[in-house]
């Protein structure tokens, strides 16, 4: 058994070493793949807050991922067409500034998570899964019918948005930005899990009645977890859209929700680096197996089956065993 | 020592916890029939009764997980009938469960810190390590020390023995600095030695927080209780001192049999 902290350090080292090698070997496509993995990892870390810490099996996280994407798409679309987003009561213009886009994505997806959370957290178990799935479908079909922003065809953004002091069109610079955000999110969630809020949320997952008998409200803890989770997924959505310079309703699809969940399960539910390992392995399989066969999802399915059946702690669990008790 | 003979000061007369005529039915089953009982400062009031007598239903209504069809529940003189469980906990009602209800994957200390966190009323902190928060850990460690679990603080709760989990239940309740305790079969499944230790501990504890004790272990009940209420078919058929209950013909017939 390898200690979990060593697995985590190794994973992080891969996220640094592979792109550095790609720069030197002049393999920009590998950098794009790593950017994809980093962005997926952020989305999955978001889901892991709800799923791993809160025990909330949400099959609707594509909503937040998609909202982040459309926040970027709509703001950048108005900026590149020199049209105002709204003229009354306030003049709101589009923007090509990443920090503004990120904050907008986080704000919009938090609000959506708050509204969806208030409605769906009244239920539990399979009903919660179905309600979150239903919300995902609502946003998906709304995006398809929203012809002003491309409808089914989506929105293309011709030039990647900017970040002060960086040339974001350079793959490695954009990657560096995504990796920095991934690290920030990791630090935040690491602290979150150990914080008083995290302790209470963890207990609310395992023994909700206990949490109530010490005077805390499990429902409110879950709602806040769901909002934080949505906010992180929204940030990832904005980055994903910027990576592709394209947003489409596919970001809202239930397949997207499913993929985000696969990242978490693949790596290890509830583990800090589970979503990171899961996203990296997924992108690697997608690339290599995708070259071998168009039907590479069959092999992904087999791998998932094996992990769920035999390694209940995901890949990290298989390598380093049961989670160490945190002190 | 009958009830009438105890010299009651005014303070002793004010019950900490009281039910007034609570009724609860599930369809045709009347699980609680006009139950009125109280818990006074410094006492252990035991509730005994055969299986299916409605003890768990009664406790659920006192703690707020079930709402009575009629009647009211009072805590420290305030009507809490319509308050949620967590509001009653904040008002000073501590509880231990018949089936241990703890975060099994967490450490013993984490479970105790959860109690301290609930008592502090400040769970909305997202950055500082809860186990490095002195105000929380001191309360938690003190409670663990009192029940004798201080050496197991770093152990996963799932690895504890049954009796140790019971002790932890009590410790978590203590972190709330409760004004009244409701304990649902704290002795169940404990060995004789564990039972004896816990009996000694509860004996001391009653001065700090009076205890409403539901218990099947008759030795413990008879050695601890100041008063006993006997519940049969959802109805309190007798309340009184240990001697009175032992001598009560209806009780003997309904419940105690040869045991007394």
UniProtKB/TrEMBL annotation, chain A:
The keyword Transmembrane helix applies. GO terms for molecular function: branched-chain amino acid transmembrane transporter activity. It comes from the Bacteria. The chain crosses the membrane at residues 35-56, 63-80, 100-119, 126-146, 172-193, 223-240, 260-285, 297-319. GO terms for cellular component: plasma membrane. Pfam families: BPD_transp_2. It is a multi-pass membrane protein. Keywords: Cell membrane, Membrane, Transmembrane, Transmembrane helix. The keyword Cell membrane applies. It is found in: Cell membrane. InterPro entries: ABC_transp_permease (IPR001851), LivM-like (IPR043428). This is Branched-chain amino acid transport system permease protein. It comes from Roseibium marinum.
From TrEMBL, chain B:
SUPFAM superfamilies: P-loop containing nucleoside triphosphate hydrolases. The keyword Iron does not apply. It holds the Pfam family ABC_tran. GO terms for molecular function: ATP binding; ATP hydrolysis activity. The keyword Calcium does not apply. Keywords: ATP-binding, Nucleotide-binding, Transport. InterPro entries: AAA+_ATPase (IPR003593), ABC_AA/LPS_Transport (IPR051120), ABC_transporter-like_ATP-bd (IPR003439), BCA_ABC_TP_C (IPR032823), P-loop_NTPase (IPR027417). GO terms for cellular component: plasma membrane. This is Branched-chain amino acid transport system ATP-binding protein.
